[in-house]
């Protein structure tokens, strides 16, 4: 699974509607409204790199009110939740 973190600049007056449209896309797992340079952050999860082209410039960037995107592809995921799950395999709760 390939994970991309997509930073999105939008029309400020349309953030909730744009976030809902992005969140409804099939490969988008979460959308966060954030402070700072960008207005939204979307987590996109796909099976192949080619799928990123379909979802990010092909769908997200074409939503009215999306002004710009900046995409970061994750190499590896490190999270406490994942580490705990890996070490708990085969243990009875």
From TrEMBL:
Cellular component terms per the entry's GO annotation: cytosol
Single GO MF descriptor: sequence-specific DNA binding
Gene3D superfamilies: 3.30.70.920
Single GO biological process annotation from the record: response to amino acid
Pfam families, alphabetized: AsnC_trans_reg (PF01037)
Coiled-coil parts of chain: none
Stored InterPro entries: Dimeric_a/b-barrel, Tscrpt_reg_AsnC/Lrp_C
Residue ranges constituting the Transcription regulator AsnC/Lrp ligand binding domain according to the UniProt record: 6-77
Protein name: Transcriptional regulator
Lineage, top ranks: Bacteria, Bacillati, Actinomycetota, Actinomycetes, Kitasatosporales
